[in-house]
Amino acid sequence: MSHSEKLLKAAHAGLHQYGNKSDWKGALHELAQSKARKGETVEAAVSRLLADRDTDMMALIRAERAAEPAAPVAKVAANPPPSALDNLAKARAAETGEDFFTAFSKVADTPEGRRLWAESRRA
Question: Reduced to 3 states, what is the DSSP secondary structure of residue 79?
Answer without folding.
Answer: coil
